[in-house]
Amino acid sequence: MKKTGVLLVNLGTPDSFSRKDVKKYLAEFLMDGRVIDIPYWKRFLLVRGIIAPFRSKKVSIEYEKLWLDNGSPLLVYGKELKEKVQNLFIRNAANVEVELAMRYQSPSIESALNKLKHKSVDRIIVFPLFPQYASATIGSVAQKVMEIISKWEVIPSIDFINDYHEDSEYINAFAKKVSDDVIKYKPDHILFSYHGIPERHLENIQKQNSNLCSWPECSCSRKNEVKRYCYRSACFNTTRLIAERATLDMNTFTTSFQSRLGKSPWIKPYTDVTVEQLASKGIKNLLVVSPSFVADCLETTLEIGEQYKELFLEKGGEKFAFTESLNADNSWAEAIYNILNQRI
Q1: 3-state secondary structure of 122
Q2: Closest CA to 296 of 67, 126, 17, 98
Q3: What would the pLDDT profile of 175-210 be if each residue is shown by its tens digit?
Q4: For residues 211 and 231, what is the distance between their CA atoms, to the nearest angstrom?
Q5: Residue 224's pLDDT is what?
Q6: N or C: which end of the chain has fewer CB within 10 A?
């Protein structure tokens, strides 16, 4: 009976919240040419000379705030999720081995792939924990996996799940959380906030093939043909699908993009600007959802839960809440199992 290996991959986390480990993590993450796509020497000077040394102290304090008793939330939830998915395959007598990896730091993609190799898998399915395709996330994972496996004597069949933002079970899992929070918090407005990317990433996709992205002559924010490899298009479509499933009024939600870095233009609208605008329009009770993150992390717990909350209240808002991510929910583990099972 043939054996399938499954590699679940998330972004990464420092080994601890010490400044040394955070600096190491930031350096590996930001030196990735798909994350900061500028010439190597410029990237080296920027990351090694400025960002990692000077931002590591602040970021280490932020990690300490969200650190759980048994480690970083991204890793804790990842391990729990991996066990749940593995148990679903065992329960259904499937010959499948599941491993967890982080694109940056530990457990590394190489170590996880080696575990699958030693278990003699005939096929590997790579499942990045990013619902919407982006070169800086799923593209980077795919490149790293191919670099490692290309050195093996025997190369198994490789299957990349490049996106699943339209998958009904992923949508249903998030929509259920949104529906519950709408009942709980009774918001005036719901803001769907996604991690941003530089506009030039869309330009690069468009240059590769205009069928993949129409930037800048596009209308992603309106309901039109979805281009699955255009991150901006996929995010707006994710919002529409969750809103439809949660039966939200079309006038009660907005999509925006957060976490921009540097001075170059990133995809708009920006979340911080949108939060201010909503408050200025008289929105008093705001709920924020971030469907690009399937596990809570710095960007949800602190950037949304603290920074945007403080901004909203400063600008006249009165109540602010954010919807927890899927983390290691049973519904999320079952969704991953079913997506994988369709491939197997």
Answers
A1: coil
A2: 67
A3: 999 999 999 999 999 999 999 999 999 999 989 988
A4: 13
A5: 66
A6: N
Helices (H) and strands (E) in the chain, counts: 12, 8
Under 8 Å between Cβ of 102 and 10: yes
Look up residue 163 and give its two tokens: 């996106």
Residues 29, 31, 37, 40: what is their CA dihedral angle, to the nearest 10 degrees? 180
Contacts of 280 (CB under 8 A, 6+ apart): 315, 316
pLDDT higher than threshold 90 for residue 139? yes
Q: Say how far apart CA 225 and CA 211 lie, in whole Å.
A: 11
pLDDT digits (tens, 9 = 90+) for 309-338: 999 999 999 999 999 999 999 999 999 999
Which amino acid belongs to residue 310? Answer: E
Sequence-separated (6 or more) residues with CB below 8 Å from residue 220: 230, 232, 233, 235, 236
Structure tokens, 207: 């240059």
322, 271 contact by CB (below 8 A): no
Question: What is d(CA 24, CA 52) in angstroms, rounded to the nearest whole number?
Answer: 8
Beta bridge partners of 254: 191
- The residue-averaged pLDDT of 16-27 equals 97
| Residue 158 CB neighbour total at 10 angstroms | 15
Walk me through the domains of the chain, giving residue ranges and CATH numbers. 4-164+330-343 (3.40.50.1400), 168-322 (3.40.50.1400)
Report residue 190: phi and psi, to 5°: -120, 130
Using pLDDT thresholds of 50, 70 and 90, give the confidence band for residue 340. very high
Cβ neighbors of 138 (< 8 A, separation 6 or more) are 128, 130, 160, 162, 163
**Model confidence band, residue 223 (pLDDT cutoffs 50, 70, 90):** low
